[in-house]
Amino acid sequence: MPSILRFMRSLSGRAGWHSTRVRGIAAMLTYIGRCLARWREHDAWLAFLESPAMAGIASIDRVLPERYQHRYINLGWSRPKRLQALRDHYDFALARFPRPLFHMLYRERQVLLGKLRLRDGEDLSLILKAPFRRSREGEMSISLTDANGLQISYATIAFVDGGRTIVVGCLQGAANNAGRDAVRELTRQCHGLRPKNLLLSIVRALAGAFDIERVLGIGNAAHVFAGIPNKVKADYDAFWMEAGGVPQEDGFYELPPRDPERHASEIESKRRAEFRRREALRGAACERVVAAFVPERAPMALAA
């Protein structure tokens, strides 16, 4: 009986079913069929979502109960693999994130982690966001947002493999037509540091703070939106290879889990001042993010 009641509760209030009556009925029948096909696993997942630590999150994130039934992070992942990845992430987050951070992220849906002062004196906000609507690329995003509220770039990640691996399912720039110009301007304001490189440094800093030795980036062919016109505009393969990534058979790129050391002595003397400002900004960003997750392990500045 508890299983049936949990399942019935999972049927209520899912906005995705109600765009039109026909599509709503079709979505409901698809969901029911997929649940019945793996009833035991799905019931265990629903029971976890109703546990005290997770209570209320599924009523806010209506897609969470069924997220694993759709494309998720890697196009080649099976349904059981997708479900395990979700469970891994939330198990890790419950065990390792500070409780107030977990609450704000998954119940209030975003957290301001800190701000960086840019070249022109404006602030760049570091915002942690929960999945939005039918997100398919991970369970939290680190967003770079300018003083006008425009999201310039973001990385969407998840902690999987029992918390031993960070996967980067998305690394994108600004939306709409502002994209290239906004990214170019932010790069200038960050003393030549590209937004995507800054985000990758932050992800690696998190890996270091949590003693995670594996960071994976999704490749073009395995991206969940691969093959869908105009959905994936970034060249993931090129970026991961530039960052030292090695392609894997499962469609990921295995990345060096830590940022490389950077030394001013290796830089042309006339560019060293800008190098130091750039690395100070990178270090400050990593410190602010890590301090929110693991206060006692905030990294030192990365510039030498």
TrEMBL record:
Biological process, per Gene Ontology: DNA damage response
Source species, domain of life: Bacteria
Protein name: DUF535 domain-containing protein
Organism (species): Luteibacter yeojuensis
